[in-house]
Amino acid sequence: MVGRFNWAGVIDFLPQLFTGLYYTLLISVVGLVIGFILGGIFGLGRIAQNKVVRGISIIFIETIRGTPVLVQAIWIYYALPLIIQFELGSVTAGIIVIALNSGAYIAEIVRGAVQSIDQGQMEAGRSLGLNHGQTMRYIIWPQAFKRMIPPLGNQFIISIKDTSLLSVILVPELIFQGRLIAANHFNAVEIYTTVAVFYLAITLSLSFVLQRTERRLDI
């Protein structure tokens, strides 16, 4: 059975698959950077004393976490343009989806990490003459960030794999390119196996970098 598979023929489609890899990485990196910023904002907002800020943060986090990524992608690509009267490109929509989705989960990671720091640390900072913002910046945040790295790494990997769902809104990422090639050339086993290897290479590389980072920070 193995001999019937044309693994050598995959080489002819590598340029197309690398195009898909490019868009997968582009959406993942940009989306996660924006998601980390959103996560920091809404994570700290989630524990803010201001009720309005806390309420907005809770609504954002629970809305995004309570709906599937696939539904978010379809809504942002097909429904949102009808509301704002502006057409979004598929790649732009994909970045927004990954940014919002990862941002909601990162917000909970940030909240959990900050709240895990002993309250005495805040009191110690204030006793040294630091205001609340300075205490968060110089004392609480550095400790919390170290604790965030393992769950952040897990979220990054999940978000990278979530990009595979974006083929439904015509983002030309790995799965989209793989499906296109397999449908036209009837080589599904070879192409989808290659796509799986691409994803595995990305996630293993990220896991390696995160493990090295954890060791350097003695987590």
Indicate the topology:
Elements lengths: L13 H33 L4 H15 L3 H16 L5 H27 L2 H9 L4 H31 L11 H12 L2 H29 L3
Q: How would you describe this structure to a colleague?
A:
It is flat, with a radius of gyration of 21 Å. The mean pLDDT is 90. α1 packs antiparallel against α2 and α5 packs antiparallel against α6. By secondary structure, it is mainly alpha-helical. The protein has 8 helices and no strands.
Summarize the structure.
This protein has 219 residues and is mainly alpha-helical. Helix content is 79%, strand content 0%.
Keywords:
single chain, 219 residues, mainly alpha
Question: Mind summarizing the main beta sheet?
Answer: none
Classify the secondary structure makeup into a structural class: mainly alpha
The residue ranges in which pLDDT falls below 50 over 5 or more consecutive positions are none
3D shape: flat
Total beta-strand segments: 0
| Oligomerization category of the chains in this entry | single chain
Rounded to the nearest angstrom, the radius of gyration is 21 Å
